[in-house]
Specification:
Blueprint: H1 2-5, E1 10-11, H2 16-23, E2 30-35, H3 49-67, H4 71-77, H5 79-85, H6 88-93, E3 97-103, E4 106-112, E5 119-123, H7 133-136, E6 141-146, E7 150-157, E8 160-171, E9 182-187, H8 207-225, E10 232-236, H9 238-247, E11 258-259, H10 267-295, E12 302-303, H11 306-314, E13 318-324, E14 330-334, E15 339-343, E16 351-352, H12 353-363, E17 367-371, E18 383-387
Parallel strand pairs: 1-4, 6-10, 10-11, 13-17
Antiparallel strand pairs: 2-3, 2-5, 3-4, 6-7, 7-8, 8-9, 12-18, 13-18, 14-15, 14-16
Helix pairs in contact: 11-12
């Protein structure tokens, strides 16, 4: 954790490993600050976030002085945030929502590709619940562009596409017997590439040659990702999709595909179109969990009670946790006696119980969804949990 926290860089992505490091941090003064994205169409001089951060710093100065005393200590402790506040270049170039974390180990800031509300949190741990939608939506997926001459396989995440494999069906020059021979060439690449040449023969391959190439493609798909369960989205002509889906052994080809000539689609557009299909899949997975919750609503495998949910989250028994957006519960959890004490508001010594339940559910392999009230399985509740057993 110390290695991460001592680096004051602005990170453009948040890995599960870094999230785990943040979740494992416990210190006497842990500060979490969230700032919203700049509204679309706003000019740089209309960015209200520096003012929000300035007000947060005033609040933190007062809070730290009450706890620790000594203005010099407080000034030095908050110095990394003060430096960022006065860095005009930073505000000009970072328009996304921001998450900042400060502890005795140092300071770190993340630029977020999701929305976030302004919030400051002070305690012996970081407030991480607003980051969890990143992982609810960060289901890995694969994209494959496919023509009769070339296949490119990408691995996708919330942040973009990374090339895994290129395979080409390259017609060579006519031989002495007057017939064209086919040669399979393949190579791997670990980064995005552009400007690849397409190779064409003098005549169109017949269906037999097409099927032969697609079978070779399928063999490589199975070798690379055959053990995976993530969706594979194809970008190709309709009849190529039909051919490949009929013969492939990969069980998770997405039923919809990106239709057209993939050679004319740039990688950014490909990512946007594939992400749209992935979004539909994520919504379907979430709705399946909501349906299961409602089917089991009056059984022991579900609960809306914080005194049941929080111990289960701490013990790793939560399969899926639904959290009502912009709502919180504050209090204490006595781990030895497995009891929850609720307070009316945040005060020195207590904690966000929703953050506690959400972070521990996620760290123990559960899925966490932050939702509007009208989307919750049981409305007008703060948390709904589906237990593993």
């Amino acid at each position: 954790m110390e290695e991460l926290m001592m680096d004051p860089s602005i990170y453009s992505s948040l890995s599960r490993k870094r999230f785990g490091q943040l979740a494992a941090t416990h210190d006497i003064h842990c500060i979490s600050i969230y700032l919203p994205a700049v509204e679309e169409g706003r000019m740089a001089n209309e960015d209200k976030r520096p003012l929000l951060l300035k007000n947060d710093l005033k609040e933190l100065h007062a809070e730290l002085e009450r706890y620790k005393g000594g203005k010099n200590y407080v000034k030095n402790y908050l110095r990394p945030v003060e430096l960022l506040l006065n860095n005009t270049g930073f505000w000009r170039t970072h328009h996304q929502a921001l998450a900042m974390f400060l502890s005795g180990n140092g300071f770190v800031c993340f630029s977020l590709p999701i929305s976030a509300s302004a919030r400051v949190y002070f305690g012996d741990h970081f407030y991480l619940q607003p980051l969890l939608p990143l992982f609810a939506e960060d289901i890995k997926f694969f994209v494959m562009t496919l023509t009769r001459h070339e296949m490119i396989l990408y691995e996708g995440s919330s942040y973009g596409l990374t090339e895994r494999l290129v395979k080409r069906n390259v017609p060579v020059l006519m031989g002495e017997n007057g017939r064209s021979a086919q040669k399979m060439l393949q190579f791997r690449s670990g980064q995005e590439q552009g400007g690849r040449a397409m190779f064409h023969g003098q005549h169109e391959d017949n269906d037999k040659e097409l099927v032969k190439f697609f079978k070779n493609v399928d063999a490589d798909v199975m070798r690379l990702i055959g053990h995976e369960t993530y969706p594979l989205v194809l970008a190709c002509q309709g009849y190529h999709f039909t051919h490949f889906r009929r013969l492939t052994r990969y069980a998770h080809v997405h039923p919809e595909f990106i239709e057209g000539n993939p050679a004319t689609v740039g990688i950014n557009k490909l990512f946007v179109q594939a992400s749209r299909l992935r979004r539909a899949l994520i919504n379907r997975m979430r709705n399946d969990k909501i349906k299961l919750f409602k089917e089991l609503q009056f059984a022991a495998r579900t609960s809306i009670r914080p005194d049941k949910i929080i111990p289960a989250a701490m013990e790793g028994r939560v399969d899926t946790l639904f959290v009502r957006e912009s709502h919180d519960l504050f209090g204490l959890f006595d781990q030895q006696n497995r009891t929850v004490i609720l307070d009316e508001y945040k005060k020195p010594g207590n904690a966000s119980l929703v953050n506690m339940a959400a972070v521990n559910s996620f760290e123990n392999g559960g899925q966490v969804y932050v939702m509007e009230d009208d989307e919750m399985p049981v409305r007008e509740t703060v948390m709904n949990a589906l237990f593993r057993y």
